[in-house]
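Ticket #4471: structure output looks truncated?

Reporter: J.K.
Steps to reproduce: submitted the chain below (407 residues) through the standard prediction queue, then opened the result file.
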Amino acid sequence: MQGTAFAEPTVRVGGRWIALLVLADLAVWMGFFTPIQVLLPNQIQEIAPADKESMLGVVTALGAAAAVVVNPLAGALSDRTTSRFGRRHTWTLGGAILAALSLVLLSTQHTILGVALGWVAAQTCLNAMLATLTAAVPDRVPVEQRGAVSGWVGIPQVLGVVLGVVLVTALVTGTAPGYVALAVLVVLLPVPFVLFTPDDRISRADRPRFSLAGFWVSPRRHPDFAWAWITRFLVQLGNALGTLYLLYFLQDRVRVADPDTGVLILILVYTLALMATTVVAGRRSDRTGRRRVFVIWSGVVMAVAALLLAFWPTWPVAIVAAAILGAGYGVYQAVDAALITQVLPEATNRAKDLGVINIANSAPQVLGPALSAPIVVHLGGYPVLYVLTAVVTLLGSVFVQKIRSVP
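Returned output as attached by the reporter:
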């Protein structure tokens, strides 16, 4: 079993496998971003309208803190799972069921404490799903196909936002029904991937030893992994700074009459731009074998989008910025994800190591509110926030040059 589960894959995956993984990932990203973009801001605004910015920052930061712990832990446990159903699928389906129950619980909350606890529970379960689904790419996709597959897998991250926002603004009315409808999809969408794709088993004899010390990946021994983590952290910090208060930015700075619809329009523009670039860039990086140059230029493009919002906070400029940001992030999402799979330290700990990388996705959701809330309220407002977004994003993309083992 070890030879199968831990070997580098050599057989290209087909369109059916990719489509089912995309569907499962769609459930995760709808579960993550629909509450953050619409449901949580509206729910918190109803509970504490005078302190909505601060309270939203607290709730999202607590959820992200849970993700920082859960993602690598769930990944490590799945690396060591000896279930006859495979290492990953048990965690994917179990996480989906518990995440749905958490979202239903969240729909009934009428205090900030209740909302925070519900969101922490949902984040915990969704991150168990994310850890195992992320590991599917290095588990089953050969290196020369990973850019293209990562491009396809990157699409649900934004498509989930679009479909989720449409679901809770156009198809379902009200915060509580929105949570319930979202919960149903979070359970249903991963089922085909769990039922109809293979998942390698390992024996108890082949199971890697579990150790808390194993969560530390030495930058001295694995410098490329460390630089990949830093790059991802800074770009995602820029993303967190720039998107957390999007609804309030349109409402209070741009003065859009219907900010909920405004968010939906910007997300649609962003998604179309991302879908236009992500698979193309991933395939191009596969053909050339080069990853770093794509990451660098994607960061430059995303920084330009942030500066547009900083200095020209108008509705037409916001639409242009959304298109530019989507195009840049599409390239980044596909190519950086492929790059990271090439610097993982050990095949026996793929999900755990990707969980450590995912801390670079989650930790900015903790730090982002801590930085952005005082900036918006006290230290210059949205112009300063979006300039900082541009600087941080650009730094993250430039540091990818420190990675030496991947061209």
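Triage note (M.O.): checked the attachment and the full token line is present. The chain is about 75% helix and 0% strand.
Status: closed, working as intended.
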